[in-house]
Amino acid sequence: MRRPWVIAFVAVTTVAIALVPVFGSAVLIQYGINALIFATLAQSWNIIGGYTGYASFGNSVFFGLGAYGTAIAMTQFGLPFWAGLPLGALLGVLCALLLGLPVLRLRGHYFAIATLGLSLAVAAILSNLEIAGANIGLILPLTRADGMFFELALALLVACVLCVWWISRSRFGMGLIAIREDEDAAAAMGINTTLYKTAALMLAALFTSIAGGIYAYWITFIDPASAFDPTLNVRMVIMAMFGGPGTVLGPVAGALVLSAVYEVLANWISTAAALLFGLVIVLSVIFMPRGLFALIGGIRRHGPGYLLQNVRQHRL
Amino acid sequence: MLLAQIIVNGLLLGGLYGLMALGMALVWGVLNIVNLAHGAFIMLGGYAVYFLFSELGIDPFLALPLAMAAMFVFGYLLQLLVLNQIVRSAMLNTLLITFGLDVVLTYLAQLLFTADFRTIAPSYAGANFTFLGVTVPGIRLAAFAVAWLLAGIMWLVLSRLPLGRAIRATAQNLTAARLYGVNPRQLYAVTFGIGAALAGASGGLYGMIGHLSPYIGVPLTAQSFVIAVIGGLDNPFSVILAGLVIGMAESLAALYLGPTYANVISFGLLVVILVLRPARALRSA
Q: What is the pLDDT of residue B284?
């Protein structure tokens, strides 16, 4: 019975956000594009990290490949943005297929670090390629259409949320959750775990690389350091974890809340913003190890004591 | 001769790499925490030695034990007051909280020490000698020796002292260790403190060989992780040996492929090893 309310709330919020470019200031639109792109990144990470339970630190590779695919198509081959974007997405998805097959055999910490290593390696290889502008980077054609980028980013986020919503209620999604809970048991139940895991990684790569393409054209300049920034990946993980991994709306809420917190901190005390951001992460892991959504649900059910109950459950 | 020189450089650098990874391997093996703030600990140790040397005029090699003691207290309190609270939650949470700590320490260092590059340069910093046509820098050789010395001390502690027995027992089975009278909260804090002290020592040596800045942490964390995986978590000497392998591989890659490929080599090596031997039981101390 709560469900219609949630759907109505999400629909109204989406329409309200879509109207921001019409009424909002230029600063708000800029901030919004950034926040929406991050929400998409957190939500795509949620597919592989939240539902499948594979803590990927290589999603920034897909972001970088999407950005580079789009940029190379536009600057080196003179293709329009609408042709470059699918090419970037194709590059990201192919990379997910090729890397996923060997790397998804690893579990736990090993998967996390192997993907981190791959992202550093891909960045180093690209910074030696002439066609990708080597270390200097690529400059894309300049466009002044922040409203268009805003709606594009919003549309991508909506598509990504709908995809995760479908996952959360489909047989495919049940398979992913089974893999997260106990991979050997899932395999024993007849789930083709390799197929499921690779498909999940490819789906995550699809949305992440499209977001990368949009970002590249919006910023109009990319180089290996900014496109393959490993902290970008950590930020998507934090946003997804903050909101609640393995939920449909959690990562989006986490991304929007944390983007706003960071923006406010940066305006308030610019020198210590990153430091306080780190403190927010530490405290949120201690007091809400299962995310914002679980915390709200828990407090509604058990009262404010749920905060301490969380700590008591996870301490040594 | 160039090849011999490159190999010697790689070996000497590799000893320091091994020492960096030693603390991470210990904490990972016993507490099952992959400490993403490990590189930040190395950075803090480097600054501790730097200030002991530049402000108080203490010789950097004498300042090393002092910096280690300070880092031990820091690590001990951090584990006791903060990390013990979340040790039993999901693996990703320990990764996240240590990442948060890394951010806090990095930017705290930037506020307190500014972003300037600093080098610990005692009067004998440039001393070297030539052996069979190969130039051996004195400080790097000393750092190499300190790495082996600390690995030896750790091996003695782990295999001979009651504390080491308790640490190894806890790594094997926490519940059983508890039944035999180990206080896990204290033991986790002490182990984490030892890890931080080792990181501090490697940071001091790093500051004598390279440059210190608040941002050196993340790549050093990644490197320590690679070495800890290759070396395994149970034997301090094999961690140092893995450091030598990585140091050599990086030096040779920089010579034959160009310096930008150094990272590709070490991480490529890691991925190949992980994929070929994924089932290797790392957690056995």
A: 40
Smallest CA–CA distance, residue A87 to chain B, in Å, is 26
CB-based contacts of A39, cutoff 8 Å, min separation 6: A157, A239, A251, A252, A255, A256, A259
Are A182 and A46 a contacting pair, CB within 8 Å?
no
Partnered with residue B136 across adjacent β-strands are B129
Q: Is A55 on the interface with B (CB under 8 A)?
A: yes
Give domain status of residue B20, yes or no: yes
State the smallest CA–CA distance between residue B144 and chain A in angstroms.
Answer: 26
Give residue B281's pLDDT band: very low, low, confident or very high (50, 70, 90). Answer: very low
Number of domain units in chain B: 1
Domain with CATH 1.10.3470 in chain A: 3-268
d(CA A311, CA B10): 46
A110 with A116: CB under 8 angstroms?
no
Q: Which residue stretches of B82-183 are H helix?
A: 91-113, 138-160, 162-172, 174-179
Closest CA to A44 of A185, A172, A206, A178: A206
In angstroms, what is the C-alpha Rg of chain B?
Answer: 19
Cβ(A94)–Cβ(A158) below 8 Å: no
Is B285 among the domain residues? no
Are A275 and B103 in contact by the 8 Å Cβ rule? The answer is yes
Residue A49 Cα to chain centre, angstroms: 10
Secondary structure, 3-state, B11-51: HHHHHHHHHHHHHHHHHHHHHCCCCCCHHHHHHHHHHHHHH
Q: Which residue of A has its CA nearest to B80?
A: A316
Give the mutation candidate from A61, A232, A285, A288 for the B interface (greatest B CB count, under 10 A).
A285
B137 beta partners: B128
Inter-chain CB proximity A311 and B85 less than 8 Å: yes
Q: In one letter, which amino acid is B27? A: V
B280 to chain A, any CB pair closer than 8 A? The answer is no
- Asked whether residue B282 is domain-assigned, the answer is no
Q: Is residue B264 part of a domain?
A: yes
User: Looking at the predicted structure, is the pLDDT value of residue A1 above 60?
Assistant: no
How many Cβ atoms from other residues are within 10 Å of residue B155's Cβ?
Answer: 14
Between B237 and B269, the higher pLDDT residue: B237
Interface of B with A in 250-279 (CB under 8 A): 258, 260-261, 263-264, 267-268, 270-271, 274-275, 278
CATH number of the domain at A3-268, please? 1.10.3470
- Domain interval for residue B173: 2-121+139-276
Q: How does pLDDT run across A217-273, given as a tens digit for each residue?
A: 888 888 887 778 777 888 888 888 888 888 888 899 999 988 888 888 877 777 777
CATH number of the structural domain spanning residue B225: 1.10.3470
A135, A224 Cβ separation under 8 angstroms: yes
With CA atoms as reference, report the closest residue to B253 among B12, B15, B6: B6
